[in-house]
Amino acid sequence: MEGTQITAMETYQVGIDIGGTFIDLVIFNPETGRIALGKKLSSIDSPVRAVIQGLEEMLQRETLDPGSIEKAIHGTTLVTNLIIERKGVPTGLLTTRGFRDALEIGREMRYDIYDILLELPKPLIPRRYRLEVDERLDHKGTVIKPLTRQAAERAVEDLLASGVESAAVCLLHSFRNPAHERMLRDILLTRRPGFPVSISCEVVPEVGEYERISTTVANAYTMPVARRYLNQLDKGLGDLGIGGRLYIMLSTGGISTPETAAEYPIRLLESGPAAGVLAAAWTGRQTGQTDVISFDMGGTTAKTCLIENGTPVKVNAFEAGRVYRFKKGSGLPIKIPVIEMIEIGAGGGSIASVGPLGLLKVGPESAGAEPGPACYGLGGTDPTVTDADLVLGYLDADFFLGGEMKLSTGRARAALAGTLGGPLGLSVEQAAWGIHEVVNENMANASRIHAVEKGLDPRKFSLVAFGGAGPVHAYQVARKLRLNRLIIPPGAGVCSAFGFLLAPMAFDLSRSYVERLDRIRWDRLDSLYTEMEATGRQLLLDAGVAPADIRFIRSADMRYVGQGFEIGVPLPGGKFGVESLGAVRQAFESHYRSIYQRLCDDIAIECVNWRLTATGPRPNIGQVKWWAPTSDGSAALKGSRLAYLPDKGSYEAVPVYDRYRLPLRSEFDGPAIVEEKESTLVINGPGTAQVDAFGNIVVSVR
After folding, report:
1. What is the pTM of this model?
2. How far apart are CA 383 and CA 389, in angstroms?
3. How far apart are CA 146 and CA 135, in angstroms?
4. What is the pLDDT of residues 153-177, one digit of tens each?
5. For residues 323-334, b (16+ Cβ closer than 10 Å) or e, as one string?
């Protein structure tokens, strides 16, 4: 934070998170615990430029030599935005004859059977760029019709002649036998060296043709832009004088090299939010709470993740570019490993409007960074969540981003009155509280349903809130969920950027081998894992992980024969053999029972996909010196301001505290507002807050 003087003799790490509205920056020394935080409006036209400018300003402010930065870790919404906004490059597809239209046919399922105007997600590749090749494999990978060199060359020439800038190759059953896909890839690269090519046997070598082709196409569609972006960022950091290596955050909570990320950009879809989950889990462990709900609310979206026993849940499927933001099935299926999060509501920039039924509606449209909320004074005129929070007295117009950005209460009130006040017959204050309440209720309800679907009682969890807007809304969300404890970590506004520094070097691999458990050829399975471990080991060695620090974590997607969905089952390590049958069966039954509370003893068990996580050690983070500790709490009270208290239905004078001056282990009662540069904690009801030994504010919610 501002005022921390850092000497050039020390070495530091940088976390860089680009969101839809802000760029968050963290500079940290893991040995001394010194840390510096920064937040800057994002730039739509050139996010790299905004990153470099923001980092340069921080380096100058902290008198830090760029050469002392030994590692930079980055997460971005780039890939997500490319798919949502359809701004990838013209991409071609080579696929097996007869499967040209698989992208549009999909699963032939309606995600809303009652919507007669149902809109399906449009394929990323128009039909004219989808070409077929004469080849065919059966489900075991046996060649039924070979792909001749002449036919392959003709297909490649036709594809390149169409003017595409990237290519996806996805042939039927290629995960069993990749020879034909690799032939097409090799011919493409021979004809045009360096051409972006994604082949499904490397992007997602798993059963499930539609999901595999959709994922491979999305990877190819975003690859050229991701390559340029990562190269520009790497060059920009180098030009700035940054001495260390750049690493990229993956959706699984691991980090990888830019080279690997550029080949598999689809794995960056949830990179920023995944880092926030890691930070929430770390904060929970600090406070002795291993069961927490991560609540990340930024400028554009809000997401939650259930963390049980200190570990966030991973899943192996995702949806991108949904037609209807909160309707499952309305997006493009992406088969990648990802920390399971649900997008539960709006962000600070989400626009409020009158819905088709004449009711108040918030989102999904967002004002973003440009033009931003009306109160920013940058051209936005629509009322947003941030405008409502300002009118309610929860934000200080003169202390937004620590005073670097002045907000206009007049513009916020005008936007609320013009769009909502007249049509709904509400005062400006009523409209503001309506927006705040709608957002909180939507987020609490979605979190409750998600927990119940997992068979969990949300009341046993604590809420860890972060993001620029998260602490503003967290108290009311916690009350609606009937949670007893709310935790706000230091630097909550840039928590995801800090989470990058907690991530191990890691990469996930998978192979499909569909077989009943009692019929598995254990030598074949052992060979699959030997191959995956060799690939994973090399990726980590290339990233600089010491051989002795590499670990492998195994799991499998398993089900009872006849079931349509699998569960992820942890597997033992070591060499597989006939004696492994009992251990694998026991692992499946134990996990299945924990989810469904029963077993199906008379039905055979089937294994579908086999997975491996290759990981390096988790970074060792000690005591973080967020700011200079103080023992005198008298200076922490900045004053008071009028803020809306829902329990009283009126504006009341509420004490405002400076978080940087709150002593460790100090205590205060709500209602209260606690300000730091990057975010604001609003306790707009009864409760007791305590600052723990690590600087976290732990609120006992009543």
Report:
1. 0.87
2. 11
3. 5
4. 999 999 999 999 999 999 999 999 9
5. ebeeeebbbbbb
